[in-house]
């Protein structure tokens, strides 16, 4: 008999009783550990083990998909509205697309406010500060205060404060103006940002690029002025400055710069630095729980009384699930119904609907 632990219960992501039934169906002993299998003479060949392991993983994945709770279409908006105190909305793909307001948003927000609901707007887009986003809301005809807005640019400054980042250290920014403004408001020294967008490296024999040894953190966000100079400068700081932090505002694959198509997101810039440094960043934006914890503490909100509304499964919905909130996916942004219902998708919100203005029509239909 093979000796092992019960680690498969964690690997499969299912309960012990489900795991036992799964193991029986796989004809494996209940005390088997995958990590020890290579030592067993029955699996002495790497290729044989890999083939066997793929079969096991395939069965586990099918088992997980079969037992997950599928998202339900939102049918009674009142029931969801009355069950929570706070709605957290993503912005891109939920409130607007590019510079265009999504239909029915003003009326929906007014209705929720009339019911006494707290509204919070959380975006992974770090190009603007909270104040700058406030102006965008105003331009679109929405009455939203800066205190209700939490952008990942603000999350960077809030995180540095939470760890008592030394004020005599500097932050190198690969990103845009929003991050710089939030760092300045928090009293942190910074360099980089858009002004490094025009800098070039002239490679020649013996050339050595200098960097500031006082940089204690490199922050990477969405950057339309991204270039090789920034990659090298950030890489040098992370690799050579002792204890230098590597912080990402988010890892979104795509973003909505216009309403005509999807554009490469901040994750592409983060990926370049991660590849050159061979390090993973600390992410302060969604789906990291940092902003959720900050919001809960800031407003004294119970997470069970929050509904997270977003258009992305791997950021918005996962953000809500990681925080223990109710979740609503809207199909007005990057996620289609076919993607949600794909057998390959394991992230299932509590509910889904076409757009947030369905709160109004579904409310009327339920009366």
UniProtKB/TrEMBL annotation:
Q: Name one GO biological process term.
A: photorespiration
Query: Coiled coil: which residue ranges?
Result: none
Leader sequence residues:
none
Q: Which reaction does it catalyse?
A: 2-phosphoglycolate + H2O = glycolate + phosphate
Q: Does the keyword Hydrolase apply?
A: yes
Q: Does the keyword Ion transport apply?
A: no
Which Gene Ontology MF annotations are present?
A: phosphoglycolate phosphatase activity
EC?
Answer: 3.1.3.18
Keywords on record: Acetylation, Chloroplast, Hydrolase, Phosphoprotein, Photorespiration, Plastid, Transit peptide
One cellular component (GO) term of this entry: chloroplast
Subcellular location(s): the record lists: Plastid, Chloroplast
Q: Which Pfam families match?
A: Hydrolase_6, Hydrolase_like
- Matches recorded under InterPro entries: HAD-like_sf, HAD-SF_hydro_IIA, HAD_sf, PGP_euk
Matching SUPFAM superfamilies: HAD-like
| Protein family per UniProt | Belongs to the HAD-like hydrolase superfamily. CbbY/CbbZ/Gph/YieH family.
What NCBIfam families does UniProt report for this protein, alphabetically?
HAD-SF-IIA (TIGR01460), PGP_euk (TIGR01452)
Free-text function comment from the UniProt entry? Photorespiratory enzyme that dephosphorylates the 2-phosphoglycolate produced by the RuBisCO oxygenation reaction.
Name of the molecule in the record = phosphoglycolate phosphatase
Source organism per UniProt: Cicer arietinum (Chickpea)
Which gene name does the record give?
LOC101490687
């Amino acid at each position: 008999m093979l000796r092992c632990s019960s680690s498969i219960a964690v690997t499969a992501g299912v309960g012990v009783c489900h795991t036992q039934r799964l193991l029986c169906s796989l004809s494996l002993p209940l005390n088997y550990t995958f990590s020890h299998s290579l030592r067993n003479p029955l699996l002495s060949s790497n290729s044989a083990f890999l083939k066997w392991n793929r079969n096991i993983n395939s069965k586990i994945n099918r088992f997980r998909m079969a037992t997950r709770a599928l998202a339900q279409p939102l049918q009674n908006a009142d029931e969801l509205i009355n069950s929570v105190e706070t709605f957290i909305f993503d912005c891109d793909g939920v409130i607007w697309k590019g510079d265009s307001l999504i239909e029915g948003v003003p009326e929906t927000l007014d209705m929720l406010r009339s019911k006494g609901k707290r509204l919070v707007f959380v975006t992974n887009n770090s190009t603007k500060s909270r104040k700058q986003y406030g102006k965008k809301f105003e331009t679109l005809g929405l009455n939203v205060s800066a205190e209700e807005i939490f952008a990942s640019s603000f999350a960077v400054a809030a995180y540095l404060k939470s760890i008592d980042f030394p004020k005599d250290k500097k932050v190198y920014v690969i990103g845009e103006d929003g991050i710089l403004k939030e760092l300045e408001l928090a009293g942190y020294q910074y360099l980089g940002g858009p002004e490094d967008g025009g800098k070039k490296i002239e490679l020649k024999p013996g050339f050595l690029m200098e960097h500031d040894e006082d940089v204690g953190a490199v922050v990477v966000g969405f950057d339309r002025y991204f270039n090789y100079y920034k990659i090298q400068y950030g890489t040098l700081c992370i690799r050579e400055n002792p204890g230098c932090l590597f912080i990402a505002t988010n890892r979104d694959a795509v973003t909505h710069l216009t309403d005509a198509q999807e554009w490469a997101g901040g994750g592409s810039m983060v990926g370049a630095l991660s590849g050159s440094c061979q390090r993973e960043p600390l992410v302060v934006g969604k789906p990291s729980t940092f902003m959720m914890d900050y919001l809960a503490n800031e407003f004294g909100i119970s997470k069970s009384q929050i509904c997270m509304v977003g258009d992305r499964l791997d950021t918005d919905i996962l953000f809500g699930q990681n925080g223990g909130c109710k979740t609503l996916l809207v199909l007005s942004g990057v996620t289609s119904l076919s993607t949600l219902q794909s057998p390959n998708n394991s992230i299932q919100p509590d509910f889904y609907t076409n757009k947030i203005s369905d709160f109004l029509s579904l409310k009327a239909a339920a009366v």
